[in-house]
From TrEMBL:
Cofactor: FMN
InterPro entries in alphabetical order: Aldolase_TIM, OxRdtase_FMN_N, YqjM-like
Keywords, comma-separated and alphabetical: Flavoprotein, FMN, NADP, Oxidoreductase
Official protein name in the record: 2,4-dienoyl-CoA reductase-like NADH-dependent reductase (Old Yellow Enzyme family)
Source species: Paenibacillus hunanensis
Length: 381
């Protein structure tokens, strides 16, 4: 990656400029390194995002956010949507028209936007389903605690879901999105195949890491065939599974490579390494974060995420004499960005509460930053 200023170490205002440098990844050209993290909003009745959803994303896109990743959008499969009464999809003409408006509006203000495509799998059981809904499916019918909650997927269902992801990817391309993100994290369906606790299959989709990653690889390959070679595919992965925060997808870098390298080969352009704290080492014996290991293993561009902007010492970095080693601080973030540990920085709750968060960081208007509060979850600021 080429930075225009590679030796900016003397002053916080110079260092923070790293976040606002443009970046070109293939045909994806971003105005800054700041990404809006995907966060479920639940303001799309019957799967249809309205004008207020477009306004919500535009307010971030026009304030120095280089890339918007939308809340999860369910693929066209009858068991995909965890909350069909409120969460979006591409399944109806009205939903597609709603998303087209969202995309057009974000582009109008100069932003870039991609949808996060999802199948909830067994996590669908966490939300009450309408009467007569089809049973939830997952690799082995097991939830994150190893308890039976749904039905194990048949080979035919696996093929149907793989095709549904490809269909959704093509739909996203046709609607004008700038790429897609596949949600392979946090205990949803793709992640349920990756994690041995929820994947107890004895066929070619279970057992070894190579077998457990097969489902995800087939989805990436199918999406790549659907959208062609130049449409960006982002893959989000995590160690933790909601609400089992101590879960491990990989116990060392070698195991992580067994997961990520086949996905990179299959066609992933960017990895989105989801952790709860971006600065924490992924494995013992190395200071590298999960994002850092993803970049080291695959050579692909990587997004880091996890509590960016939520700690007080994040903005203390701008004060004279601020320590350069405060965990979670701006100095730690920019130092790792400058050293190419990752390429992009996703911001979640801080942007949820304050649509001007990035602009205020850019301008040094730190006294105007709005702290995250629980009520932000229930509103479209």
């Amino acid at each position: 990656m080429n930075f225009t200023e590679n030796n900016m170490q003397s002053h916080p205002k110079q260092d923070v400029a790293l976040l606002f440098q443009s970046l070109k990844l293939g045909k994806l050209e971003l105005s800054s390194r700041i990404v809006m993290s995907p966060m479920a909003r639940g303001f799309s009745p019957d799967g249809v995002p309205g004008p207020e959803v477009a306004d919500y994303y535009c307010r971030r896109a026009e304030q120095y956010v280089g890339l918007i990743i939308t809340e999860n959008v369910s693929i066209p499969h009858p068991t995909a949507n965890q909350d069909p009464a409120n969460s979006p999809d591409f399944n109806s003409e009205a939903a597609r028209a709603g998303w087209k408006h969202v995309v057009d509006e974000v582009h109008r203000v100069g932003g870039k936007i991609i949808p996060q495509l999802i199948h909830a799998g067994i996590a669908r059981e966490n939300v009450p389903q309408p009467a007569g809904a089809a049973p939830s499916i997952s690799p082995s019918g097991l939830d994150v605690y190893g308890e039976v909650k749904g039905e194990p997927m048949t080979i035919q269902q696996i093929r149907e879901v793989v095709q549904a992801f490809a269909d959704a990817a093509l739909q996203a391309q046709q609607l004008g999105f700038d790429g897609i993100e596949l949600h392979g994290a946090h205990g949803y369906l793709i992640d349920q195949f990756l994690w041995e606790t929820t994947n107890q299959r004895t066929d070619e989709y279970g057992g070894s890491i190579a077998n457990r990653v097969r489902f995800a690889v087939e989805i990436v390959e199918a999406c790549r065939r659907a959208v062609g070679p130049d449409f960006p595919i982002v893959f989000r992965f995590s160690q933790w599974k909601y609400p089992v925060y101590t879960a491990k997808l990989a116990y060392d870098a070698e195991q992580l490579a067994e997961v990520l390298q086949p996905l990179a080969t299959a066609g992933v352009d960017i990895f989105h390494a989801s952790t709860r704290r971006f600065w924490e080492p992924a494995f013992e014996g190395s200071p590298l974060s999960l994002a850092g290991w993803a970049k080291h293993i695959t050579g692909k561009a990587v997004i880091t995420v996890g509590s960016v902007g939520l700690k007080q010492d994040f903005t203390d970095f701008f004060a004279a004499g601020a320590s350069a080693d405060q965990q979670g601080s701006m100095s730690v973030l920019t130092e790792r960005l400058q050293s190419h540990e990752f390429d992009l920085v996703a911001v979640g709750r801080a942007l949820l509460a304050d649509p001007e968060w990035a602009a205020k960081i850019h301008d040094g208007r730190l006294d105007e930053l709005k702290p995250f509060q629980a009520e932000a979850v229930g509103k479209l600021y």
